Amino acid sequence: MANCKVQAVHKTRAAHETPAARRPLAQPRAGGRVAAVVLAAGVASRMGVLKQLLPIDGEPMVRRVVRTCLDAGLEPVWVVTGHGAREVELALAGMPAVRCVYNPRYMEGQAGSLRAGVQAVADQVSAGPPLEEVAALAVLLGDQPFVRPDTLRRLAALALEPGVLAAAAAYGPALPGPPCVLRRALWPEVLSLSGDRGARSVLLAAGDRVRLVPVDRGELKDIDEPADLKPAGIRPPEPR
Fold this sequence. Notes:
The protein is of the alpha/beta class. The protein has helices at residues 19-22, 61-71, 85-91, 110-126, 149-159, 187-190, 200-205, 217-220; strands spanning 5-8, 33-40, 55-56, 59-60, 77-81, 98-102, 134-141, 166-170, 176-183, 210-214. The longest helix has 17 residues, at 110-126. The chain starts with a strand and ends in a 20-residue tail after the last helix.
């Protein structure tokens, strides 16, 4: 069985209504740990298969992304599941420091899954030891399997600098995107997001307190549709 502990997000409770979201989280001591959230709940309608399980160098894509987090020293790692949740959980079997959060409203867009992951972390941090020293949270997409551990380490180090609220990959001048690392002060802003959008609006609102990191385009490549497979060196799934 997988080590991934599953936590369901209550269908009738909005993330911004929970106690952890209503009150500011106490700030950790200088430094602090960086945990991670991997968003892996999508339907992947353009791909036509459960792309989280596509093989990357012999392992499922979602497992590769989680392994990158662990190799970068980010833990625990919360994986937000939705479509194909059971299969995704099984793909993470045997991985240490991994927790699964099931988002039953995954069809409503990326913001709901992002809220589910951040809320799960905020709840655990508020509960005290051993996670009270989590100072920041890396957010990764489950379909960006080529991000390197060194990139995550650099983002984490920048996000923990004094006066900084976040660090993010640069997609252009003043254009932040995933992966990113968010300090606690930004988590309530993330919990107010809605629709099919990620954390970019939160990062843009933080202005010059966000550090942008140039990242090789190859690292940021996401796998969205069949045309993305061959250029990325991924073997297409066998037709059923």
